[in-house]
Amino acid sequence: MRLLLGFLFVMATFGQPGFPDLGWMAGEWAGEKWGGRLEEVWTKNPDGSLMCAFRHVKEGKPVFYEFLTLEMTEGKPVLWMRHFNSRLQAWEDKNGALRFDLTSAKTNEVVFELLPENANGLRVKMIYRLAAPGRMDAVLERTKDGKTSVENFEYRKR
Predict the structure, then answer these.
(1) Which of 29, 39, 44, 59 sits between 20 and 30 A of 136, alpha carbons compared?
(2) Is the sign of the CA dihedral 135, 45, 53, 91 positive or negative?
(3) 22-157: which CATH number, 3.40.50.10420, 2.40.128.20, 2.40.110.10, 2.30.40.10?
(4) Cα–Cα dist 92/85, whole Å
(5) pLDDT tens digit string along 24-58?
(6) Rounded Cα gap, residues 128 and 13, in angstroms
(7) Phi, psi at residue 25, to the nearest 5°?
(8) 136-145, long-range: CB within 8 Å, 24+ apart, which pairs?
(9) Residues 83, 119: contact at Cβ < 8 Å?
(10) Three-state DSSP class for 110?
(11) d(CA 139, CA 17)
């Protein structure tokens, strides 16, 4: 019985098989971009999955929100994302969220990609990196018709 309880504790603590340890993402993060403040709050669940609430605030008013979940889907880690305006009207189709597949995971870096077939020919890569203790960088790469744009975000842990 103790062995079974010990096994269940380990699984609850370290997550599911194949799921990267992204506990370093958990916490409250803030940065500046687009003339305002960006805030991300990541929470880690016992199974290793993550949830994030994001908001962009400009001149004291919300501009838009994102809700993200990172969970096992079809046996692999997937980042699901939805955008909302300041009145919580979804930008994406009401029946679906954006699906970013995990393409790389290292100790302090994780890469997700939205494939062109899921976004009308647009390829989007999201990279999260623990750059230093208390500092997380995010890189957003968009590629369409052979042209790539890159946006960098620097967050500090609160």
Answers:
(1) 59
(2) positive
(3) 2.40.128.20
(4) 11
(5) 999 999 999 999 999 999 999 888 789 999 999 99
(6) 22
(7) -80, -20
(8) 136/24, 136/25, 136/29, 145/121
(9) no
(10) strand
(11) 27
